[in-house]
Amino acid sequence: MKKIILVSAVFLFGCPSGTSVGRSVVSKEFSEKKLLMGTTVEIKILSYDKTIAKKSISDAFGEIAHVENIFSVYKPVSEISQLNKNGSAVVSDEVIQLIKKSKYFSEISAGAFDITVLPIIELWKNSKKMERLPSKKEIENARKLVGWKNISIDEKNKKIIFAKKGMKIDLGGIAKGYAVDRAVEVLKKSGIKTGIVNAGGDIRCFGGKIWKIALQNPRDKNDFITIVKIKNKAVTTSGDYERYFFLDKIKISHIINPLSGYSANKSISSTIIADNATDADALATATYVLGPEDGVKLVQLYKVAECLVIDKERKIYKTTGFAHYE
Hints:
This protein is 33% helix and 30% strand. By secondary structure, it is α+β, with helices and mostly antiparallel strands. β12 and β13 (250-253) form a beta hairpin.
């Protein structure tokens, strides 16, 4: 579960209260919240016109709902559900492009990020219902269905094909960030110059405003680790402190390590700052699974992002450029 707390914002405009030079009209903040993609989505924008603001926000929410209808594994008629059901399917350009990007992040993370992990996730969900840990054999069998290299993309015929029967994908580790990016693009096309979209902690801001965002202490929801100041950037955190359960007194995080088949346990949280929410979302999952040292190395090689990872002993690791945002 992505969890970032938006605490305050600082204007960079030269005029008080967002007043535009040479204009008597004052820009106002408009915000709305909706439940989409299994989380609370909040959109805040600055606008001089209430009607334009309301329509822009409504259109942005509509775009997020569109993304959810395509990528959700919980909607039987979604393109991803149909693909999982049949093992191959003709899909939209959006699905092809996001699966291509997912495979890229799988490659650079050596499989720490892998959308084919759904069979293992389903195994753990069933184990929770049965109130018992899955056996090593069950884990081994589920892992046989995992492997991003077994996804074939036929761009000419707009088709996705799985190499193994029983393979399933879940783009939960990247689709929410993608939805945020799509919402931002809709707002920009509507003429909105400044705003922020927050989908349960997948955050992206745009325009001439600095946003201060407090990163929650994973072990104390009333405390925070640091405050980052971002402008025209995205911030996403993956952690073990919001969605988890216990089996045989063992804490099971919702983030599964595709390489082991077990709950990722090298870190307690990983925060990414990047140019867009899609990349930040995928990198947050990958670095969380990899652990602090390998996670930091991955982001430093990626070059256009920064990260802060907290290990099990609560030691903080950062890329060299992360301090630029604090």
